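Here is one chain, start to finish.
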Amino acid sequence: MKKYSIKCTTIIALAAIIISSCAKTDLGPGYIEKGFVYFKGDGSYAQMTPVPVTPSIGTAVFSGTYDNSLQILNYSLKWTGMSTGVTKADFFFPSSQVQNGLQARNMFTTTTARPVTDSITGVIWTVNSLTQQELADLKAGKVYYTITTSANTGGEIRGQVAVK
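Its structure:
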């Protein structure tokens, strides 16, 4: 009986050590156990502030993955139905859904407009890495993107980025 009690106590002690060593680090909202945070953001004409002069039926979908270990944000942005060719896309920090922020990152700018339905992929890392404040704003849903066209030079559609 004593032998059984020692084995049982040893197993319980080892289990407690293993469980305590697996405790999660609090990385804020959106923390995923494997160290990634996933983001999404649907864009539309109605979200623009102020509303553009030229109406649009365009829509966009942003998806991103932030690697907490490597501090890299990989993203894709797909749009469809824009009024004219797309000339640029930008990130703005910090902002709620009803206010404007400051342009913080350019996803792309082109002199030759991209098609009204297209997509891009990108990465923010190393030299261009997010500051701690930008990362906090991103995780808190205080980041949005705009897509600009030749018809709407101030932006045609906007999408708020949030943790999935």
